[in-house]
Structure formats: structure tokens, C-alpha cells
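thought: fold this chain, then report.
action: predict
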Amino acid sequence: MADHVLIVAPGHFCTKFSPLGGIFQLDLARALKDSGVKVGIISINRFQISSIHKQYEYPTFEVIDDIPVYRQYYRLPIPSILDPMLFTGIILGHLAI
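observation:
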């Protein structure tokens, strides 16, 4: 069995914007932790263009039920419909690393 599991949660993970976002991943992390596995969660996503001037309101790091959660969201200065998936994939991959 793995000594440490990193769960990558898509979308907004347990935020005010999306309180149930990532709930499956959080439940999975709890179950793994309860079985003795060291576990962490990373959430990467993007903001919509409408929030480009709003303050970043989500903590980049917090601990939920003894599980470290890292968030990294970026702002894309164009509407989502104009964002080619290649660009998003490159950015999200870079943020995850």
C-alpha cells in the first residue's frame, strides 16, 4: 500500500462558491486517513472572467479533518468559451507541479 496518497480534486474544492465541490474526494481522503494512509488534497481550477478583479477569497492552504488541502486557482482574462483546452491544460499542469 502507498505511504502517501495525493488526491487531485477538480473544480472549486469545498468553497463558499461550491460547498459540495470535491465532497467525494474529501470522503475518499477521510476513509484513506482512517485506514492509516497519509493523504493530501490539491485543488486547481480557474476563475471566470467576471471575477478577474475580485480578491482571491479562498485559502491556498487549510486543514480539513486533519487532511492538508492546497488550492491554486488562476484567473483567465478571456471568457471560458474562448479558452482552448490546450492552454488550460498547460496552466493547470504547471500549477499542479
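thought: worth noting. The beta strands are 4-10, 38-47, 61-64, 67-75.
final: C-alpha cells above.
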